[in-house]
Design a protein that fits this description.
This protein is about 75% helix and about 0% strand. It is mainly α. It has two domains: about 140 residues; about 80 residues, Cd81 Antigen, Extracellular Domain, Chain: A, CATH 1.10.1450. It is rod-shaped. The model has no long low-confidence stretch (mean pLDDT about 80). It is found in: Membrane.
Length: about 240
């Protein structure tokens, strides 16, 4: 009886961790979706982007889905332990096992993607620059996305300020965005060249690499909780069966 009570407590602890992790991942997914000034928003504006990179725009939906599933099954595991319901415990075990395998695979893919990030960003360079030259200063949404991104990341253009040459904004004023200059004066070609602000390419690369490591680490941490929860759920499952 004492052992059964201890196992229930452990089940609560592990599933509580899974539940909280699901809430955090769900919150991050909603934040990424709502954050219109993000890198993902810029990707949506790029025409003919490589398939591997364009799939990143769906990352918010993936995070929301994973978070919701973890919330639901963290709750299911707790209910199964309280009610000593073998069916719920077995359902919990099978589905968490599937999620566990998917998370491990996802973490591996993220770590591989981290190594491929620079190549993928290089592949999309031409399309991004064409998009800037065609839309910056004319398309309000795209212009606002670039302005907020450059201001937030403290960068200029994709590779440098010359990416804005020939854009509607430059053609009207023969000036560059204020983010391309360090001084508060008019951002002319001379001033932009002197300021030598780093292109957003390198900021994007750093952002992807850092986030890939963090997400992979979180996924592996949740996977460890899931292993513990699956072990405890099976022990409880057998104990309840022996009582019957």
């Amino acid at each position: 009886m004492c052992c059964s009570g201890f196992l229930k407590i452990m089940m609560f602890v592990f599933n509580g961790g899974i539940f909280l992790a699901g809430a955090v991942i769900l919150g991050v997914g909603v934040w990424v979706k709502v954050d219109s000034g993000s890198f993902l928003g810029l990707l949506e504006e790029v025409e003919e982007a490589p398939n591997d990179l364009s799939q990143l725009v769906n990352v918010s939906y993936l995070l929301i889905g994973v978070g919701a599933v973890l919330l639901a099954f963290g709750f299911l595991g707790c209910c199964g332990a309280i009610r000593e319901n073998r069916c719920m415990l077995m359902t919990f075990f099978i589905i968490v096992l599937i999620i566990f395998l998917a998370e491990v695979a996802g973490a591996i893919v993220l770590l591989v993607f981290q190594d491929m990030a620079e190549q993928l960003l290089n592949d999309v360079e031409r399309q991004v620059i064409i998009s800037i030259k065609k839309k910056y200063g004319e398309d309000d949404k795209m212009t606002a996305l670039w302005n907020s991104t450059m201001e937030e990341l403290q960068c200029c253009g994709y590779k440098n300020y010359t990416n804005f040459d020939g854009s509607p904004f430059y053609n009207r004023s023969e000036l560059y965005p204020s983010s391309c200059c360090t001084s508060n004066s008019i951002c002319s070609a001379e001033e932009a060249n002197k300021s030598n602000i780093e292109g957003c390419f390198w900021k994007f690369l750093k952002l992807i690499e850092q986030n890939a490591v963090i997400i992979a680490a979180v996924a592996l941490g949740i996977a460890a909780l899931e292993i513990a929860a699956m072990v405890v759920s099976m022990i409880l499952y057998k104990q309840i069966g022996n009582k019957a």
